[in-house]
Design a protein that fits this description.
By secondary structure, the protein is α/β, with parallel strands linked by helices. α3 crosses α21, α9 runs antiparallel to α12 and α16 packs antiparallel against α21. The chain is globular, with a radius of gyration of 24 Å. The two termini are 39 Å apart. The structure holds iron/sulfur cluster (SF4).
Length: 624
């Protein structure tokens, strides 16, 4: 399969004289900053793309240095297989693919289809995520497929579905931030995770907007805030309920909106009545006066926005924490209004699209449900299989990995775009489970810590070497375009999936000639689903600088803002949820006497498989 087609290359002359280049997007976070890649004698050089309306030419240091991984000396250029002596040794593609297919086939024959598992990632393009889901259900027939987004923002996704009936990280364009009168930013350090977003926060501040940061750490973002609230770890729900208590007590909620557009307020009001400020101060450590000031800032603003990120979401009770902050946005009557509402700042490069098109255990493409008969019928017809042949719901990420080696657990695992030896919770235990597999097959461009314990390693192409689409933090579908060919000996992930499926007897269902072919099938599979991509074409993405889903026909421009007049719930109303504060799943004791909390550094991304190989980034942050 050709990695790049002629329409992948766009020639530009707008901003820097008459230089030519390839317009694409950063391989790292969900902001998907616009880039122009140029081929020079020394390799690929990276510039920001000023014409891309979201990042406007800005990149962070990870983006500027991203081309360094393309030619890195550690780059895998040949498949590896484990030999009789236990060493990973070079192999031909045929040998490696035959071995991988044989291991998957034998596992299925001996232990049933669910013994073969698939694990994906939120950095895969939409085309790859879609194809990985189809590979699991059609080529392997397994229910056990999930991905590393479960360790990321899945709590907010689940909360959004419970409250709004749909999950799109930001249901509004990022530019709305600049127009918001007040922003409540919970558990996010934007200054380090998405520095180009600071231009919107700067404009927000220049317009007299108030920024309230909720974070136990005094991060660079918190230092720029109007007000910084520092709740004790594990007390976020109490803080949100305390804010709502003050809003209700002081008549600062939007009762008309609540009556017209929400359900569940009476139960919620009864619950938050018990979160009076003195009690919340005892639980959270946030002074009563700060809590009351924080409640009044968004209440008096024309547009108020509540944004959460991993600090609120990576909890044993992350769904409830996200729901507690959604309650605040709904009670203020802001959800669905311009420059207001609730959003989750998704992290991984395709964290949004990667959670929409079927690499989750309970999901089919287009946010369809695998346990819904109509959804199964629709997708089965697109795939040319019977609905009965599709497996049911499988285990979610941690359960899939943690039950390896158990009686009904996965015994052979195909893994693409993830490094769970580093990134999974309880990582030491998960590594022991991965080592217990009968076969581990990993696709990666470096020998990651997970690839190092695999039986077969398949070298795959990187972002600048292949095309496809991603869906950004805003729900804006964008095009990645290939700027160069992959090194000799390296194949694209799509190519690998098709080759393996053919060896498993499913050549016909995996006869794709290009990422565009895969995208066209994805469009049909998602048609009528909640994340409907049916009207999105590569040409429309080019013409509009991205297309916001849902986009239901080729004449439809897309949907930058959701929830304007109704929510996609059965009765069109949003749901408020009464969620209680409870003790953390684990608390201080004699053996574990201090709190640790997670945070991000500017210089590194995910498990660092890429960024730990870039000298400039290692100089900035040599250790965790
Ligand atoms: Fe932009 Fe994120 Fe890439 Fe940095 S890592 S350049 S913020 S997309």
């Amino acid at each position: 399969m050709p990695a790049a087609t002629p329409d992948d290359r766009l020639v530009l002359d707008a901003h820097k004289g008459h230089e030519s280049g390839t317009l694409t997007h950063c391989p790292y976070c969900a902001l998907q900053c616009g880039m122009r890649l140029r081929r020079t004698a020394s390799g690929i050089t990276v510039d920001g793309n000023p014409a891309f309306p979201v990042s406007r030419g800005a990149l962070c240091v990870k983006g500027w240095t991203s081309a360094a991984t393309l030619t890195h000396r550690d780059r895998l250029r040949t498949p590896l297989v484990r030999d009789a002596g236990g060493r990973l040794v070079p192999a031909s593609w045929d040998e490696a693919l035959d071995r991988a297919a044989s291991a998957l086939r034998m596992t299925r024959a001996a232990h049933g289809p669910d013994a073969a598992g698939v694990f994906g990632g939120g950095s895969l393009t939409n085309e790859k995520a879609y194809l990985l889901g189809k590979f699991a259900r059609v080529a392997l027939g397994t229910s056990n497929i999930d991905y590393n987004g479960r360790f990321c923002m899945s709590s907010a996704a689940a909360a959004s579905i419970k409250a709004f009936g749909i999950d799109r990280g930001l249901p509004f364009p990022l530019a709305d931030i600049a127009g918001a009168g007040a922003i409540l930013l919970v558990g996010s350090n934007i200054a380090e995770t998405m520095p180009p977003v600071m231009q919107y926060l700067d404009r927000h501040r220049q317009g007299d907007g108030a920024l309230i940061v909720v974070d136990p750490r005094r991060t660079p973002t918190a230092q720029s805030a109007t007000l910084h609230l520092k709740p004790a770890p594990g007390s976020d729900i109490a803080l949100a309920n305390g804010l709502l208590h003050v809003l209700i007590r002081d008549n600062l909620i939007d009762e008309s909106y609540i009556r017209r557009r929400t359900d569940g307020f009476h139960r919620l009001r009864a619950l938050v009545a018990t979160y009076w400020p003195q009690r919340v101060e005892r639980i959270t450590g946030v002074p009563q006066a700060d809590l009351e000031r924080a409640a009044r800032l968004p209440a008096g603003a024309a547009g108020a926005m509540v944004l959460t990120a991993r600090g609120a979401e990576q909890h044993a009770r992350g769904v409830d924490t996200s729901l507690a902050y959604i309650n605040v946005a709904l009670a203020l009557g802001q959800v669905g209004r311009p420059c207001g509402g609730y959003g989750c700042l998704t992290g991984q490069g395709n964290g949004q699209g990667g959670r929409e098109h079927g690499q989750k255990a309970d999901q089919l493409p287009g946010y369809r449900r695998i346990d819904d008969e109509d959804d199964r019928r629709h997708v089965a017809a697109v795939w040319g299989v019977s609905p009965e042949s599709l497996p049911g719901r499988g285990r979610s990420a941690y359960e899939l990995l943690a039950t390896i080696g158990e009686e009904d657990g996965v015994r052979a695992l195909f893994l693409m775009g993830s490094n769970p030896v580093i990134s999974a919770p309880n990582a030491g235990y998960i590594e022991s489970r991965l080592r217990a597999l009968d076969a581990l097959i990993v696709c990666d461009f470096f020998v990651s810590e997970t690839a190092a314990i695999a039986d077969v390693v398949l070298p795959s192409a990187q972002w600048a070497e292949e095309s496809g689409t991603t869906t950004s933090v805003e729900g804006r579908v964008l095009r990645r375009r290939a700027a160069c060919e992959p090194p000799a000996g390296v194949r694209s992930d799509i190519d690998i999936l098709c080759a393996l499926a053919a060896r498993l007897g499913k050549r016909e269902q995996f006869a794709f000639r290009s990422p565009r072919d895969v995208f066209d099938e994805l469009r049909r599979a998602s048609a009528g689903g909640r994340a409907d991509y049916s009207g999105i074409t590569y040409e429309k993405i080019d013409a509009q600088q991205g297309v916001f889903w849902p986009c239901v026909s080729e004449t439809h421009a897309g949907t930058p803002r959701l929830f304007g007049d109704r929510f996609p719930t059965p009765n069109g109303r949003a749901r408020l949820h009464a969620v209680r504060h409870g003790a953390p799943a684990e608390d201080l004791d004699a053996d574990f006497p201090i709190y640790l909390t997670t945070g991000r550094t500017l210089a590194h991304y995910q498990s660092g498989t890429q960024t730990r190989r870039v000298p400039e980034l290692m100089n900035l942050a040599p250790t965790p």
